[in-house]
Amino acid sequence: MNAPYDGDRGQGADGAGSSGGPPMPPGPGQVPPTPDPYLQTAYDHDPYRSQDLSVQDPVTEALYDRAAHPPPPPGTYQQPQPLYQQPPAAQYAPDPRIWAQTPPPEPDGPSRHLPYGDDPATTQFVGVDDLVSQASQDHEQPDAFAHLFRDQEGPAGSSPVPTEPEPAPAPAPPKSGGRASGLLKSSAVMAAGTLVSRLTGFVRSLVITAALGAALLGDSFTIAYTLPTMIYILTVGGGLNSVFVPQLVRSMKDDEDGGEAYANRLLTLVMVALGVIVAIAVFAAPLLIHMMSPTIARDEAANSVAVTFARYCLPTIFFMGVHVVMGQILNARGRFGAMMWTPVLNNIVMIFTFGMFIWVYGTSAESQMGVQTIPPEGVRLLGIGTLLGLVVQALAMVPYLREAGFRFRPRFDWKGHGLGKTIKLAKWTVLFVLANQAGVLVVTQLATSAGKLSGKDGTGILAYSNAQLIWGMPQAIITVSVMAALLPRISRAAHDNDPGAVRDDISQGLRNSAVAIVPVAFMFLALGLPMCTLLYASAGTEAARSMGFILMAFGLGLIPYSVQYVVLRGFYAYEDTRTPFYNTVIVAAVNAAASALCYMVLPAQWAVVGMAASYGLAYAVGVGIAWRRLRNRLGGDLDGAHVVRTYARLCLAAIPAAVLGGGVGFAVLLGLGEGAFGSLVALICGGTVLLGVFFVAAKRMRIEEINGMVGMVRGRLGR
User: Fold this and answer.
1) Distances, alpha carbon 604 to alpha carbons 50, 463, 546, in Å
2) Rounded alpha-carbon distances, angstroms, from residue 696 to 492, 525, 595
3) Are 190 and 484 within 8 A, CB to CB?
4) Both ends of the chain: CA-CA distance in Å?
5) For residues 542 and 331, what is the distance between their CA atoms, to the nearest angstrom?
6) Measured between alpha carbons, how far is 341 from 189 in angstroms, rounded to an integer?
7) pTM, rounded to two decimals
8) pLDDT for the residue numbered 398
9) Euclidean distance between CA atoms 687 and 528, whole angstroms
10) Given pLDDT bands bounded at 50, 70 and 90, which one contains residue 214?
């Protein structure tokens, strides 16, 4: 009896059937037939043929012996195995001595589980660039059904081993924006706090000018109020901030307690040192006033008022220093907002104090109050209010420190814990700010003398300070905020000896800040006059106009001033405080020399205007020297071409904008006058034209930083 017909299973390429046993060897003289691998493998390993009845051969079905080979009962069919699986991973690492090894398996991902198509361009490549570049590189197969053989072949030509289907990969957690978004978020928090602080600072400046005027009484208070700030910068503030941050970051990274003990020792040391400094400064107040302004010291009434104000204000040195160190402890822990927001409280207290003074005595224009007529009670009120503002500002940092997990415990074990290195670094930084403040001292003496010689309001140190307050606002909001967030990161990169990361962060800080610094600098040049006539109208038209011209002279100096601030942070990251000192000596020398030249050459009422222009000139010289030194420090590469190209293109976009915006503002002032209303309209119209022209020109020039900023704003607005 014939064996049951088994269809064409095991059939060769020539169509001759076989019984399914091993193939017979060819006879003598016969050429063995070449097997067809596609046909054999396709039939032998078809996982669906035994389950899909529609593909069964009817002849095979009729002759099939079901008694000898009963079909499986219903419901017991095995589920088909997926055709596309990851190849099993090798047990051992590849041997580099073996040539042409099998490549390692691809990682799990969407490309390995695509349900449609077998084209390698859509199953082997993930990125869009790969899809575009690799899709056209497929070679045509010689057989239309070759893909069946390729898909059903196992590793090394063996049969595919059924395995359990792999579970789908877990969805990746949502990614944060990374370094750039973290920087933007931190900078935005600080910029918002600094903006509010500066705005309230404007209001404070307005009420001070309204209460005391822009003549000798206002200059006397300005000298006394500036004196503790100068001493604070010489001790803890200013450049010392840049020494504290790298040391605190290093202690957080290396110490077992996360740097808390180091921070407590540092804060205790600073508090003790500042307490001693305050005691000495209060005792030496008359000498300090004479050093600040011999012109005021030689006037008996003005000197008496200035010394009294100074003795109320000098204790603020202690609270300024404590506030700075607490803020740097928070910055090292990634909390950037408190240091920028707490000065708002100081401004509010001072605004309230001077508002009470105006409520009691009236404005300067109404009372005509001077250094001879101001009552002692008024001096006491203003002095206590000024001191109270700094006390509130410092104490407001305590809740933020507790929230960050820092508990202050006085520690006097200063020796052998790294504070000596900080003090050694601070030595050069103290010299740095000393050189800087030496230039400020020269300008203060010359401006005070020029104001008294001119006999006109708004030509002394108060006008200079008010204009500089407006001029420094963009620097504090933009550049300082960006670099405060970047400085811990730059310090870590410098500690890890990664000059490329330091260069990239400095380049990023320069270019990101330039987007706003450059147009604002040209805006000060074009619209400085209506800005000051609007803000300081209470001081009188003559004083406000003088302040406007001073602000215009400051204008373009904002660009090198901002660049200098960023570049010096690169030296501080490497704990190099000697180079910034030498650089600042050069800047201070140029500023003092140019200011003295302006004092001698220009008329008294224009001398302070020339001093303001000298300030920007000095920083332009300093930038050239600092840039070259930092570039050499980073191996000769500071991304200079990219940075210079960005600043040059921004300036080219700002020049026509400033010409058109300034022309519109000047025309409005001629038509409506220099009162508050005319100044407001001129500022709005001129500013709108200037910013609009600048934005259009920058977009036409395809400045990438502008496009990035616009994209970020649109993303924030959800558009």
Assistant:
1) 107, 14, 12
2) 39, 20, 38
3) yes
4) 83
5) 43
6) 9
7) 0.63
8) 86
9) 11
10) confident
